[in-house]
User: Fold this.
Amino acid sequence: MSSMPPPSDEPILPPFATPTTRHEATILLAERPELYVVNGGTDAMVGVNDGRTNVAGWLSLRRVAELGRIVADEHSLVLGAGITFAEIEALLADSVPSLAAAARTVGSPQIRRAGTLGGNLATASPAADAVPPLLCCDAHVELASCDGVRRVPLEEFATGPKRTVRRPDELITAVHLHALGGFDAFAKVGTRNAMVISVCSIAARLDPASGVARVAIGSAAPTVRRVHDAEPALLDPGAADAFAAEVVRGASPIDDARASATYRRHALGVLARRTHARLWRTAGEVAA
Assistant:
């Protein structure tokens, strides 16, 4: 007569689904919309480990190869949601320098090799470093379900901290970038030089030839925010102070453990002036 094994103190892991195609993943999510969708899991595991996140089951997208593709033509760029920050840093330094620069500031090298673009969007953090550059590219988020595919302007995707318009049965599958001309830049302030969550951040895009200007700020409002009123001043090479004033006016920061609202406004003004000068300096160098 065999004896029963002694009870284990190890926790029982929830179900773990690993589809290999987007179609299979959407079917699984339609059947079980309570599944927690992950790819790199760099943010999810923080919540699980400190007890803030309760998970009924996992849907891992790590094996869905099509989510890691980059498709480019002369008018747009489509980034699969499974692209990692390390890949963004290595592959997009020429086509979207601001996004590559933002990717370099995300966590440690290990985090950048695991963390994905889709995860950064799904988290809907006001400090999400990838979002300001994407907003300056007029990005749209592609969402897929068994009912089909829809695209949502990134500016409308996040509705608040950790809240988005994604339905429980939808996957973030790609990001479509539609504005790629001109010059772009990204900068942020943190409490140390590396592996730091933004105290505030800014991204901007300037194309003097076509009259296109974009600016977006992070960690300065409930969501990453495009500052439309600051964009006309970005088109004027002599309007750095006016540009900075409009950027600060467009922010609504809070006091938290990382910085006060007053400091965030001050830092945003400094970053805005530097970004304005940097973009026009680059434009002048290219023209020369």
The chain has two domains: 63-177, 183-287. The two ends are 88 Å apart (CA to CA). The chain has a mean pLDDT of 91.
